[in-house]
Design brief:
The chain is α/β, with parallel strands linked by helices. The chain folds into three domains: about 110 residues, Tetrapyrrole methylase, N-terminal domain (Cobalt-precorrin-4 Transmethylase, domain 1, 3-Layer(aba) Sandwich); about 100 residues, Methyltransferase, Cobalt-precorrin-4 Transmethylase, Domain 2 (2-Layer Sandwich); about 45 residues. Helix content is about 45%, strand content about 15%. It contains eleven helices and ten strands. The strands form two sheets. Strands 3-2-4-1-5 form a five-stranded parallel β-sheet, sandwiched between helices. It has a five-stranded mixed β-sheet with strand order 6-7-10-8-9. The longest helix is centred in the middle third of the chain and has 15 residues. The relative contact order is 0.11. The structure holds S-adenosylmethionine.
């Protein structure tokens, strides 16, 4: 399992399948065989995986509800020389689950944290989306309260990187309606039940995907991938107004001039440009 730096035990983050049980890596299986204790967000699922690969290991619970007391126990075990592996409900521990807090506790206590690569719903959805993967921002689950969610959508609507979210199937339609409202026309991909029998990726403009979803509401687990905002124009509003003025001095109508300048600079608001240019007519 690699070099040990201190006499303490070590802490291993072990990704587990997000659907297809064969997606567990050989190294994760080796690690689960070798550690002293497996800490699990979902003990039933962890035991199922261990049984499937014939691994007998003590399993303890580490989940949001008991994370303070459980992390004390885990740190104590590691301080006393035991190796501990953390497995989340599914996927990579630490991504949208309580794993992050335990990692922090380990670091603060001078414990080696070894992160093994493996299944993760974000990467699986992003790479099959057909949307740019060079830069992306993972936003976790959208806030559930309407006001909070709308403010949050508004805030991220200018993000130019590809956006990735988790969402429950019950809230998918509502979230997409609000996204269409605030983001305008953008490409999205909804990854559903990835790596499982009913795996599918629904791609298209937000409204097209919404239509498909209304026709047959999706069930199961979901990741939404959204095209980022168009890059903001490098031209300031002041410069754009000057350009409109120049065109007007050459005999072009106000409406036409605004149209030409805003088409050249897709990040600028056409309405704002029109309102400023109309004031600047003389
Ligand atoms: N730690 C996990 C990971 O690495 O992917 C994610 C944990 S998060 C609490 C669970 C969410 O991940 C689900 O609600 C769903 O949005 C997404 N998810 C997990 N498995 C999935 C799958 N097979 N297909 C699509 N989305 C999935």
């Amino acid at each position: 399992m690699g070099r040990r730096i201190t006499s303490k035990g070590r802490f291993f983050l072990c990704p587990t399948p997000i659907g297809n049980l064969r997606d567990v890596t050989l190294r994760v299986l080796d690690t689960l065989k070798e550690v002293d204790v497996v800490a699990a967000e979902n003990m039933r699922r962890a035991r199922f995986l261990l049984e499937k690969y014939d691994i007998q290991k003590p399993v303890m619970s580490y989940r949001e509800e008991n994370r303070v007391s459980a992390s004390k126990k885990i740190i104590e075990l590691i301080e006393n020389g035991s190796d501990v592996a953390l497995v989340s409900d599914a996927g990579t521990p630490g991504i949208s689950d309580p794993g992050y807090h335990l990692v922090l506790e380990c670091i603060e206590n001078g414990i080696d944290v070894v992160s093994l690569p493996g299944p993760n719903a974000v990467i699986c959805a992003l790479t099959s989306s057909g949307l740019p993967t060079r830069r992306f921002a993972f936003e976790g689950f959208p806030p559930r309260r309407e006001g909070e969610r709308r403010r949050w959508l508004q805030k991220i609507s200018h993000e130019e990187r590809t956006l990735v979210f988790y969402e429950s199937p019950r809230r998918l339609e509502r979230t997409l309606v609000e996204m269409a409202e605030m983001f305008g026309s953008r490409k999205i991909a909804v990854g559903r039940e990835l790596t499982k029998i009913h795996e599918e990726v629904i791609r298209g403009e937000i409204t097209e995907v919404l239509q498909k979803i209304e026709e047959s509401p999706p069930r199961g687990e979901i990741v939404i991938v959204v095209e980022g905002a168009k890059p903001r124009s490098g031209v300031s509003m002041e410069e754009a107004v000057k350009e409109v003025k120049l065109l007007r001095s050459q005999g072009v109508s106000l409406k036409e001039a605004v149209s030409v300048v805003s088409e050249k600079n897709p990040g600028l608001s056409r309405n704002e440009l029109y309102n400023l240019a109309i004031k600047d007519k003389d």
